[in-house]
Amino acid sequence: MREILIHAGEVAIRARLLDTPTADEIWRSLPIQGSAQTWGPEIYFHTSVQAVAEPEARDVVNLGEIVFWPQGDAIAIAFGPTPLSRNGELRLAAPCNIWAMALDDVAILRSVHAGETISVSTAS
Question: Which residue from 101, 114, 117 is spatially nearest to 41, judged by alpha carbons?
């Protein structure tokens, strides 16, 4: 089972990779590092990873799903309703590939500020 550690600012969460082409591409690219951007209660960061939208890509996700935004080559994690959300849903800006599930509470990412370093590495 493939697990990763996402460090963002002063916090970290663990996640388990799903069996998807995007997860495979991200796994092969580890470690990945970037600069945090925020969009309401969502953090994302641009990567050198490239992936096309998978057939299951969607713009409304569940809490704890970690996504890849193909249009922006970015990893994103929503932890609350975004500016586009309706009725409390977690709506992203565009359909994204779900590639991992958080094993820890993603709400701790509220403390991450734009410009802070985010890294994704294999969990040891």
Answer: 114
Rg (CA), the chain: 13
The Cα–Cα gap between 81 and 120 comes to: 24
Rounded alpha-carbon distances, angstroms, from residue 62 to 10, 50, 58, 78: 24, 23, 10, 9
Which residues, in sequence order, are CB contacts of 89 under 8 Å at separation 6+? Answer: 60, 81
The Cα 124–Cα 115 span in angstroms is 26
- pLDDT tens by residue, 12-25: 999 999 999 999 99
Q: What is the DSSP letter of 81?
A: -
Decide if domain 3-122 falls under CATH 3.40.50.1000: no
Name the residue ranges covered by the structural domains of the chain: 3-122
